[in-house]
Automatic annotation (TrEMBL):
Gene label: Il22ra2
Record organism: Chloropsis cyanopogon
Boundaries of every Fibronectin type-III domain copy: 5-96
Role of this protein: Receptor for IL22. Binds to IL22, prevents interaction with the functional IL-22R complex and blocks the activity of IL22 (in vitro). May play an important role as an IL22 antagonist in the regulation of inflammatory responses.
Transmembrane feature ranges: none
Localisation per UniProt entry: Secreted
Coiled-coil residue spans: none
Principal subcellular localization: secreted
Protein name, UniProt field: Interleukin-22 receptor subunit alpha-2
Length: 214
């Protein structure tokens, strides 16, 4: 068993990091190195860079999990934020572990678009929908990520006769409905798409494949 004076160091949370996708933002950390640390409880605070006082995150105060949702605490997406976590075990508290600075607008990852394909005579019509943020308009609908960034759709076609891994870029732009024509009848084609953000040179992951036989 650890000496009590070693306990604060040994349970101190490690690797405190923000993870963010489409502005859904979660703080993650790892438990301290002591075996006992797995029984620790965690306490999370956050603040905007430059503020002097830390805010408690009430839903993440004395929790046993290793993550905390800060989506609504970081909703001013141009502001830089910090968060910090401490652990407690057997009445002993660790020091705070500080995250790096996190600015949602610069650092959130963009998710892929939703893709639906409809085939007709020697052509495929592709319908695209940008991902949504968690933030809502007054009427209650979620605000799409295209409201926050100048985003382009990139659409790729895979000819399954040739090579599963060979994706050909067939469209880049803002249209939500595109038509790919002059395809070979009886051939199976798959479509994948990405969101591309020119200003930060970021791309989303690929969407899931939508396949059809023309």
């Amino acid at each position: 068993v650890l000496e009590n004076q070693d306990l604060p160091d040994s349970i101190k949370p490690q690797k405190v990091e923000f993870h963010s996708l489409n502005f859904n933002t979660t703080l993650h950390w790892q438990p301290g190195w002591a075996r006992e640390a797995r029984d620790a409880l965690y306490f999370v605070q956050y603040k905007v860079y430059g503020q002097s006082t830390w805010q408690n995150k009430d839903e993440c105060w004395g929790i046993s999990s290793h993550f905390c949702d800060l989506t609504y605490e970081t909703s001013d997406i141009q502001e830089p934020y910090y968060s910090r976590v401490r652990a407690a075990l057997a009445g002993v508290y660790s020091n705070w572990s500080l995250s790096c600075r996190f600015t949602p607008w610069q650092e959130t990852m963009i998710g892929p678009p939703m893709v639906t394909v409809v085939h007709s005579n020697k052509s495929i019509t592709v319908k695209l929908q940008a991902p949504h943020s968690p933030y809502k308009r007054k009427r209650g609908s979620k605000i799409p990520m295209t409201n926050y960034y100048d985003l382009l759709y990139q659409v790729f076609i895979i000819n399954n006769l040739l090579d599963e891994q060979h994706r050909v870029l067939v469209y880049e732009g803002k249209d939500k409905v595109i038509k790919i024509q002059d395809l070979r009848p009886g051939v199976s084609y798959c479509i994948v798409a990405k969101m591309y953000m020119p200003i930060l040179d970021h791309s989303s992951a690929y969407s899931s494949r939508q396949c059809t036989v023309v």
